[in-house]
Amino acid sequence: MSETLTITDNRTGKQYEVAITDGTIRAADLREIKVSEEDFGLMSYDPAFKNTASCRSAITLIDGERGILRYRGYPIEQLAEQSSFLEVAYLLLNGELPTADEHAKWVDEITHHTYIHEYLTKSMDGYRYDAHPMGMMVSFLGALSTFYESSKEVRNPAVRREHIIKIIAKMPTLAAWTFRHSTGRPYIYPDNELSYTGNFLNMLFRMAEPKYEPHPVLERALDVLFILHADHEQNCSANSARAVGSAETDPYCSLAAAAAALYGPLHGGANEAVLRMLKQIGHIDNVPEFIQACKDRKHRLMGFGHRVYKNYDPRARVIKTLAHDVFKVTGRNPLIDIALELETIALNDEFFVERKLYPNVDFYSGLIYQSMGFPTTMFPVLFAIPRAAGWLAQWQEMITDKEQKIARPRQIYIGHDERDYVPLDQRTQSAS
Ligand code: ACO
Question: Which one of 149, 188, 195, 328 has the largest count of C-beta atoms within 10 Å of its C-beta?
Fold first, then answer.
């Protein structure tokens, strides 16, 4: 069997043979297909990149039909059960799990870069008390680049490593301090004796106690949530990190762009929408009526369905178990009963079964965050902390990929042909 595609151009009657590699053809090969010598050549049109592979990647695999998510080949379920977020971050960035020595060094390095420059701390005071924490995160990530001039040397592996460590280390500090700012509480400095998530909880919630002791169940739950959110291949924010980074922009500004993409309600905001929906339903008795309204297309069942997963979002299964562990400590979130009832009814309803609509990662995560004391505005920030590891892995893979160049799509121009400038006093046509 020949791994090629034969194309007949009916405009000219000419035939072309294009190589098929890994189930794809190279869009650049289409440029050979021309009606004349002056013709630019054929292009593919793919708004929103729905059927275009923009890179070759060895980081994350999603098989939506089979409900599979793997980081560097390791199933997400095994990582969630046996690994830690920092180990997973190492895996995503380096391709292999660390040895014991590598792990110790990695954790030590991250732990010793958690402080942020005091000038940046001062700039936090310039934000209003009700500033959205995610807006603050986006700007702090960009602002960090101004403290690290060397980060511009993106082609230098040692420099890249230095700033990757700094970013992973500082994300929880920035995130916690946006929360402290919005609650008017003093910023809490990192405690190097605590774990990555233990220290994060310390910077979020410590008050007058001399030594903060994170609850081990909540510390572990947050770590598992971080593992589940660490990467998800070429999503909107990873693509933003790659596209901006392809201009050789430093990693801080590339990640600011990625965080800005995550801020959008179609990307990082669905768990907030789930909470709003559960509150709106209000009581378990109202669930059947709500489900019927979904079927009548009056609204969507938030936290259900996924563009890629058409079997089950494997992260949702882990999160559901985690939610029960957290509620044993925090007390049962009263909205969980509504969520469980929605899930039970929807999973047995033909409308949802036929369309392969299952709970996604966001269906339960918001309930956990709320029970742990986070306001909904913090949800995208909680997503951004672990996803920084994925963004950095994607960014680094792009920088070291010899085939990649500055990301620069083509367009189909549909505007005016050339026309002459009309002086102001002679214009009759208005754009509106
Ligand atoms: N509730 C009710 N019906 C739904 C839902 C839902 N949540 N999701 C999809 N459908 C229906 C659609 O009406 C459509 O039905 P039809 O074919 O009869 O018209 C069919 O299922 C297919 O829906 P699409 O919108 O074509 O699916 P798509 O893959 O484009 O959308 C998406 C995926 C955006 C996630 C969608 O399922 C949705 O809006 N879900 C709710 C929001 C949500 O939970 N988003 C978080 C996703 S996970 C994440 O980003 C981290």
Answer: 195
The phi, psi pair for 7, rounded to 5°, reads: -115, 130
**Is 59 among the domain residues?**
no
Distance of alpha carbon 29 from its chain centroid, rounded? 32
29 and 178 both lie in a single domain: no
Give the residues surrounding ligand 1 with Cβ less than 6 Å away.
267, 270, 294, 300-307, 355, 357, 360-362
With a CB cutoff of 8 Å and minimum separation 6, the contacts of 173 are 114, 115, 116, 190, 203
For the stretch 218-260, pLDDT in tens is: 999 999 999 999 999 999 999 999 999 999 999 999 999 999 9
Centroid of ligand 1 to alpha carbon of 236 (angstroms): 17
* Structural domains in the chain (count): 3
Strand order in the sheet with 74-75: 60-63, 68-71, 74-75
Closest Cα partner for 347 from 381, 303, 380, 379? Answer: 303
Residues 150 and 191 in one domain: yes
Range of the domain at 350: 270-371
Predicted pLDDT of residue 362: 87
Helix (H) or strand (E) holding 18: strand 14-19
Whether 60 is covered by a domain: the verdict is: no
Nearest CA to ligand 1 atom 18: 355
Burial of 178 (0-12, 13-18, 19+ CB in 10 A): buried
Residues 159 and 308 in one domain: no
Asked if 119 and 126 count as a contact pair (C-beta separation under 8 A), the reply is no
The whole-number average pLDDT for the span 191-200 is 98
Residue 268's alpha-carbon distances to 149, 176, 264, 365, 383, in angstroms, are 30, 18, 6, 12, 7
Contact 376, 335 (CB under 8 A): no
Domain match, 90 and 159 both: yes
The model's pTM is 0.94
DSSP character at residue 17 = E
Residue whose CA is closest, atom 43 of ligand 1?
A: 303
